[in-house]
Amino acid sequence: QIFNQHNAEASNWEQAFHRMAQMEPNLDHDVSWFLLPSYWAKMVVALISFLCFANSYDGDFVFDDSEAIINNKDLRAETPLGDLWYHDFWGSKLSSNTSHKSYRPLTVLTFRINYLFAGGFYPVGFHVINIILHCIISVLMVDVFSILLGGLQFSSKGRRLNLAPKSSLLAALLFAVHPVHTECVAGIVGRADLLCALFFLLSFLGYCKAFRENKEGHTFSVFWVLVSVVLGAIAMLCKEQGITILGLNAVFDALVINKINLLELIRKLLYKDKSLENAGLLRKGLLFRITLLMCGGAAILYIRWRIMGTGPPAFTEVDNPASFADSLFVRAINYNYYYSLNAWLLLCPWWLCFDWSMGCIPLIKSVSDWRIIALAALWFCLIGLICQALCSEDSHKRRILTLGLGFLIIPFLPASNLFFRVGFVVAERVIYLPSIGYCILFTYGFSLLSKQAKKKKILAVAVLGILLINVTRCALRSSQWRSEEQLFRSALSVCPLNAKVHYNVGKNLADKGNQSAAIKYYREAVRLNPKYVHAMNNLGNILKERNELHEAEELLSLAVQIQPDFAAAWMNLGIVQNSLRRFEEAEQSYWTAIKHRKKYPDCYYNLGRLYADLNRHIDALNAWRNATVLKPEHSLAWNNMIILLDNTGNLAQAEAVGREALELIPNDHSLMFSLANVLGKSQKYKESEALFLKAIKANPNAASYHGNLAVLYHRWGNLDLAKKHYEVSLKLDPMAPGTKENYNLLRRKLEQLQKKGG
């Protein structure tokens, strides 16, 4: 569809518009920078953006990657593709009250494709895609900045002209090497921001394509406006910020296409000036295009809201403490302080942290707090820029500053707490798109300095130095994102008051078996945040394993008191109470955990162990059966069922359970061992031998496997083989219970047989 302009007066106005555009000052005239052909400029940007983050290609899954990828069932083939449209980013149902409502099905789909092609959870493929996406986005930035800084003009053949090749290259390089982008590129979960940015830019470029005149002199293409709306919708399906491109397209249309002076327009609106009727916004179809953008945006938001189902997500105070402050003044002043921190990360991206919550940034509660200076500085700069953008007599300056501020502020609005509460304090990933505005303002500022400077080369060298520093910082920060240990430890110097940082360092140490060091960090996390129930739970677990049961009980009891629906803490409390032989309390704790988490196989498993200790065999078997129904691969529950049935003489039932378990988990050597014991007692020696040998092949250093196989051969009459496996068992474990006695019995029997033979 093409909107046809028949009005002769408007056609004349159009020609005048192009003549005026050509007379505008050229930003490149004052910029002392490299001039490269478009192709080479894009190659340079692609190469440098690749070098910045290349060392993250072989990193691990870190931080949120575990929940969004490894534990996300939506990535697996057994989950229907259709479920992705009803689940959030983490694989939970959007209708659930616990869902974060982060609706990014297209991002999850790319994770699923990564998983499918890699044949499992191998992080290299995930990282490579992120790096490639950032390179593509950086290359697209050359075109985007050439439009934003140089204006939108086409040749007689309909080819877009780059009127600011030097400025657009500088701005694209600034974007490509900005260290604040490391979280999006080196952290796999940042794929959402990268995909969103890709379609965000494609939407903008598509909108620009709508104004390419054809031979018939048509002013704009409705088709490309609609394509831009669709691409904006796709951007939002990658991450919520994507919807903001529709607003930016409208701003671009007003400022660049229609050359509207905002201050003059506001004056005319206030004074109801009749000259508005002759304004370009009616003649050039601006209202029509803005109506299309608004209708498209409203439809997208309506569909998004309907899919969410149960309203906005519920966050906790530790996620975003300012949003829970009772005082409107405290909320407002802290929100503005957060804005200033985001601005500082764009200006000086040296202190970077994977998480800024949990006390990392203490609340400002009084105007006497020195941090108020940061707010004053932020608004002083913003107001100055806004005044220049509105009041400057230089139309070129007005346009660039307004576009810079627009791209800086509008994509940030969903993270601003203005419309709804967000689940973070500061997040480096959310300023991936706003950094476009920063690069515009930086480049324009550089052009103004170049215009005034006598030694322009020194200024160019200084900017080149900034780029090199940023490249170095990107490489350093990317290496920190390669593993959780480096990532978490890097945050200790940036956010020493952040309880979550200490918790994550402790968890990483505990996973590596360094419990003593983990205890230190868990204790510090609890000290910094006395209501940090997850730190209490993990600390209680370690103390339980170290047999420090009374302190473990105190911590776990406090955790469930603070958060009564914390199922994991209830289960761990039950384990501690069981160890303290307070069986009734333990049983009650287990059932409370199951009450708060209906599908909790590990809790059923521990409940079964409690019942087994109390000789309530039927209840134990039922609990373990529940565990295997909820989690068919729960090897420990299957094993305990087999062993209990074996010990109580129910060999036929034990054999049936063992065979059922091995069908579900065919490569589990512990199940092979348990079933082999049962078959041996049932005198099914050949089948028992085969399972023992298979278990030994899978785990050759298990002394008990060799010892029990020796017992089987002993019973079976294969005394030489029995002797061989007794000796292997004793070599692996000289203190193996019963094995030495059985071996001595066998030796005596062999000696007797030798005497008889002699």
Task: Write up what this structure looks like.
This protein has 758 residues and is mainly α. The chain has a domain at 321-454. 66% of the residues lie in helices and 1% in strands. It has 34 helices and 2 strands. It has helices at residues 8-23, 38-53, 65-70, 105-118, 123-150, 165-176, 182-186, 191-209, 222-238, 244-257, 262-270, 280-283, 286-308, 328-347, 372-391, 395-409, 435-452, 456-480, 484-492, 499-511, 515-528, 533-545, 549-562, 567-579, 583-596, 601-613, 617-630, 635-647, 651-664, 669-681, 685-698, 703-716, 719-732, 739-757, and strands at 2-3, 220-221. It has a two-stranded antiparallel ribbon. Helix 2 runs parallel beside helix 6 and helix 24 runs antiparallel to helix 25. The longest helix has 28 residues, at 123-150. The radius of gyration is 34 Å and the shape is elongated. The N and C termini lie far apart (108 Å). Mean pLDDT is 88; it is low at 1-23. InterPro entries: O-mannosyl-transferase_TMTC (IPR052346), TMTC_DUF1736 (IPR013618), TPR-like_helical_dom_sf (IPR011990), TPR_rpt (IPR019734). It is found in: Endoplasmic reticulum; Membrane. Its EC number is 2.4.1.109.
Topology:
Blueprint (H helix, E strand, L loop, with lengths): L1 E2 L4 H16 L14 H16 L11 H6 L34 H14 L4 H28 L14 H12 L5 H5 L4 H19 L10 E2 H17 L5 H14 L4 H9 L9 H4 L2 H23 L19 H20 L24 H20 L3 H15 L25 H18 L3 H25 L3 H9 L6 H13 L3 H14 L4 H13 L3 H14 L4 H13 L3 H14 L4 H13 L3 H14 L4 H13 L3 H14 L4 H13 L3 H14 L4 H14 L2 H14 L6 H19 L1
Antiparallel strand pairs: 1-2
Main location: endoplasmic reticulum
Organism: Poecile atricapillus
Protein name: dolichyl-phosphate-mannose--protein mannosyltransferase
